[in-house]
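Note to self: the last two entries modelled the partners one at a time, which told us nothing about the interface. This time every component goes in together.
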Amino acid sequence: MQLSRDAILSAYRKMTTIREFEERLHIENPKGEIPGFLHLYSGQEAVAVGVCEQLTDKDYIISTHRGHGHCIAKGCDVSAMMKEIYGKRDGLCNGKGGSMHIADVHKGMLGANGIVGAGQPIAVGAAIACKLRKDGSVSVSFTGDGAANQGTVFEAMNMAVVLKVPKIFVYENNGYSEHTGSAYSTGTKDLVQRIAGFGMQVFDADGFDFFSVYEAFKQALEVARNGGGPVAVHAPTMRYFGHFEGDPMLYRAPGEVERYRAEKDPLKNFRTRVTDAGLFEKSELDAITSEIAAQIDRAVADAKTAPRLTEADLLTNVYAAY
Amino acid sequence: MSVKTMRDAINEALHQEMARDSSVIVIGEDVSGGAGGSSGQRDAAGGVFGLTKGLLPKFGEDRVIDTPISESAILGAANGAALAGLRPVAEIMFSDFFGVCLDQVMNQAAKFRYMLGGKAKAPLVIRATIGAGMGAAAQHSQTMYSMLSGIAGIKVVVPSNPYDAKGLLISAIRDDDPVIYLEHKMLYGESGEVPDGDYTVPFGEAKMVREGEHATVVAFARMVPFAAQAVDRLEKEGITCDLIDPRTTSPLDEDTILESVRATGRLVIVDESPPRCGIAADIAALVAHKAFRYLKAPVTPVTPPHCPVPFSPDLERLYIPSPQQIEAAIRAVVAYK
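The predicted structure of the combined assembly is written out below.
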């Protein structure tokens, strides 16, 4: 893998930001100031960052209900994201969407989504726009193993193939569809075969390894950017927290998360890889981590004290008034 | 009789009906949970709000069916199972997800009996959650009974308390036609007296929650306890109201509403569903049509504004009709000359 020092640092920065953001939310959530549902992305950072580091603001992504990681990887403002999650007026969606609907269309981030499987056909539409623009831009959807069983996803895959649009389906299989194992809910043992059956090339990646995701997505991107139609990347991964914050996770074996954190952690992998190769000193990476932790501290403090929404905000952006 | 939460009352109804009738099955996402998980523990969820907890150990995997995340297939399978002689109770986790699978409701379940010349029946129940108040934002907070009640061929049930919740669910399961049973998620923890044995609450029969003479208040689901707060406060000032909980929006107990309005001449309708083409507008039209000459004040709906449910609790609080708004509306119709 020939990545520049800057590219490696940028990826490390993004992955660390996601990790610090999510772990901090896990700590903050029980304090009761964060409304609604939180679905955290910790453990899956290599996928979002391995993909989005190769995209520009002209490219689109659409995310899932577990969307913070994709948002950060696509370059959304972390402080505005935090304010959104706290339901504040200066949030990324003015406090009207929250964690599950976080988006920044100007960054090509078409949104997290509360409806499992809803994003994939939307991303096909964005891919039609990319195709018409003829500027090599692409549209990427992130799909969990749960969403992989929705009819909308099958329809989106087939239509993307029929229309030959520059669309990349990224499957991040984290092992669980909410509270049910994907070993149960996905009928085939070979999801890659199923995706390939729709008529597109599938690139396999190790979702725990940034460099593997990066390489697989690079190949996929080359096909899509050059008019080769839709392609897919399949990246098995693992979420560290529950389906939502507060999920007692009775479906998981005790010690499962700890084992993954100890043995397969994508951030640890990344650090070991680049320090063993002599590219960076541990201390350089630690300094970045500290800097990001401080940034997250500020984002949380700012979010807590940010101006609240008032009655005047309730009916803004309502275009069919009554 | 003992005190139970609405959650426990619904769970008990499911247990009792599954024990009574072996054709009753439960099907949905995570209705037991844990299948294919690394702990090997089944019944790990019992539904995302725990409503179907304990069914799997008692009735087994053939009757308590965990599904992939596939709402269209869940409802399609429930339709097929019903046509083939079972009594499925399907769960759609949030009623917002009817957006994914409305065809199976609107064009399939609702049509079978009529379209097939009365030769088929589809005795299925679809349970789903409704309501704002959890900060669950625009795609997990909607109140869908008005829209669903507009579909001919579907019965729609909206319990407001644990007693009705159990009796109405048992009626729904025993009903030979498709019933959508909507549970307000902010009511799950509410407690009340619930008989331990089985009993039914009939559809289309409203409950008179309070009796009075100055105004009629009609409310649904969580708006019933909200309206009761307002009515009880006003009673201290000598303003008394009939408070009517129709309990089912389809069929709707028109007679109880009309009879009350003919006596009071003043009507407030409290409805958490969207204001346009909603049940409040529907009841206002009913009263305008059938009790016009008895009216002494404008029929007054209390509903959310016509906008999606906002995420921020600062806005969500303003979105949901409040007991204060209901009280003000009652005061206004009573004062109207």
